[in-house]
Amino acid sequence: MYFKIYQVLKQRFDVTNFSTSVFLNRFHNISWIAVRYAIVPFFIFYPMFVKGAYDLIFTSWSCDLPFFGDVVYAQPPTGELARFSKGCSFSVTYGRHLLGTMVGTIGNGITWPCRKLFGKFSIKYHRFISNSIATQKYIKHHFNKDSIVIYPPVPTHLYSDDKQKENLVVSIGRVVPEKRFDLIGVVGPKVPEAKFVLIGDADNRGQRIVNWIRQKFNNAGLKDNFIHLGKVSNSIKRDFLQKSKVLFHPTPYESFGIVIVEGMAAGAIPVAHNSGAPPEFVDFDNLFINAGEAVEKIRNALSKDSSARKEMRATALKFSEERFKNELLHTLNCMVNT
């Protein structure tokens, strides 16, 4: 998303790129977790010293790593919106590694002053752009700041809905606990008429989730009904989306959900968790709260005809990259001139 914004800004403004990720990528042999807490203070304060040289500083801001600047595109990480939802039942089923938890805890303690105290100072000067209405409400609740909504850019032009559909239910995303892909193992065996495909990179924690899902299918005598493809090329991802009838997105409290819109653009009916941003563009009939509802919604989605798929695609096309470019440039142009 960072580079999408950078590419858009370059079309109208003279842009200087200064990113922690770009900086760290120069040092491939140094772990991010090892140097993060050493360099973060520098990146936090740097924009303050160069502010006079720029008309606008487009920066990032989060509860963990605040940065000084003029405007920020807010896109909370998966599950963050759950912290401020009444009756929240969000849970993580697989924990972090002990070493990572210890390093993170120590680092957070050491950097607490610059993160918390500077965060309270810098937030006064930020103008927010939210990636959804759900995020807009989160920003208002958490920071008491108003914001405008500009939905993220989705490459809808890469997809078509004219492919022959199969009884495939595809899920896409990095396999981490907060994505809740483990629900595939609960839901999938109860829909034996469909094959479930999970696309996404999995580390050690993720592989345990994949193995757990696979075991659930094996126990139900449906060994061939689940496949994990891991990380694949964009062309393979596009091919699966275009031939799948359903895009199953079990992640709760998404701040947007780009892959949901990609699936809709490809003519796949989305079945998504009824929380966060998805209810803003996914029909209520395709939203679920628990596993039982997910089974029902997936079966209904499998039976949808081509007219329903074309309707999904028409909704998805409203989130095009061109639309994002025009809205972002218009908004920032107004900010620069005020």
Give keywords:
338 residues; alpha/beta; Rossmann fold; six-stranded parallel sheet; four-stranded parallel sheet; 10 strands; globular
What does this entry look like structurally?
The chain has 338 residues and is of the alpha/beta class. The chain has two domains: 2-153 and 321-336, no CATH class; 156-319, 3-Layer(aba) Sandwich (Rossmann fold). Helices cover 43% and strands 13% of the residues. The protein has helices spanning 2-10, 20-24, 32-50, 98-110, 112-122, 133-143, 183-187, 204-219, 234-243, 258-265, 291-302, 306-316, 321-336; strands at 58-59, 71-74, 127-130, 147-149, 166-172, 195-199, 226-230, 244-249, 269-273, 287-288. It has a six-stranded parallel beta sheet with strand order 7-6-5-8-9-10, with helices on both faces. A four-stranded parallel beta sheet has the order 1-2-3-4, with helices on one face. Strand 6 (195-199), helix 8 and strand 7 form a beta-alpha-beta unit. Helix 10 (258-265) crosses helix 12 (306-316). The two termini are 26 Å apart.
- Whole-angstrom Rg: 21 Å
Mean pLDDT: 84
Q: Characterize the largest beta sheet: strand count, sense, and whether it forms a barrel.
A: 6 strands, parallel
Computed structural class: alpha/beta
**Beta-strand residue fraction:** 5-15%
Lateral arrangement of strands in the main beta sheet:
7-6-5-8-9-10
Low-pLDDT parts are 86-97
The N- to C-terminal Cα distance equals 26 Å
Shape: globular
Percentage of helical residues?
Answer: 40-55%
Number of domains: 2
Count the helices. How many? 13
* Counted beta strands: 10
The helix/strand series, from N terminus to C terminus, equals HHHEEHHEHEEHEHEHEHEEHHH
